[in-house]
Specification:
The protein has 6 helices and 2 strands; from the N terminus they run ααααββαα. The chain has about 140 residues and is mainly α. The chain has a domain of about 80 residues: Orthogonal Bundle (Arc Repressor Mutant, subunit A), CATH 1.10.10.10. Strands 1-2 form a two-stranded antiparallel sheet. A hairpin with a 7-residue loop joins strand 1 and strand 2. Helix 1 packs across helix 2 and helix 3 crosses helix 4. The model has no long low-confidence stretch (mean pLDDT about 90).
């Protein structure tokens, strides 16, 4: 598990660098795609960034890359929302993830349904353990 996690982090960093971003930038884009638009403060909380300037700089980089845009919240014009733009993201990093998905698909085709169910359960549990530890560490850092 330790090696898998290290390789996953290094892979994400390599993907980010291939399109001129850093790992946190790419994770922020992924979080916006999966969880929807966010205010800069919400995005900071999702990514764990604590300095307001760091969040603004990240959003600026992502906007320059064409991966996100800022807009005013229609319900509260004082709020700014950051939204991911899927088409440029897919054009930038889609080919890499497509190659990986193709390799995984070939491998998964060799597994039984029971093996796939076990793997899915294992990965879901690993994600939960990681999420809980992230929350714990972030709470410890603030308190």
């Amino acid at each position: 598990m330790q090696e898998f996690m290290a390789r996953a982090v290094l892979f994400q960093d390599a993907v980010a660098r291939s399109v001129g971003l850093n790992g946190t930038d790419l994770q922020a884009v992924g979080l916006l795609l999966s969880s929807g638009p966010a205010t800069p403060g919400e995005l900071a909380a999702r990514t764990g960034l604590t300095a307001g300037g760091a969040v603004t700089a990240m959003i600026d980089r992502l906007e320059r890359a064409g991966y996100v845009h800022r807009s005013r919240d229609e319900n509260d014009r004082r709020r700014v929302l950051v939204t991911a733009d899927p088409d440029p993201i897919l054009a930038g990093v889609g080919p890499v993830y497509g190659r990986v998905a193709e390799q995984w698909s070939v491998y998964l085709d060799t597994l039984s349904d029971e093996q796939i169910e076990f793997a899915a359960e294992l990965l879901a549990r690993a994600a939960e353990v990681n999420r809980a530890e992230i929350d714990h560490l972030r709470g410890d850092a603030r308190g």
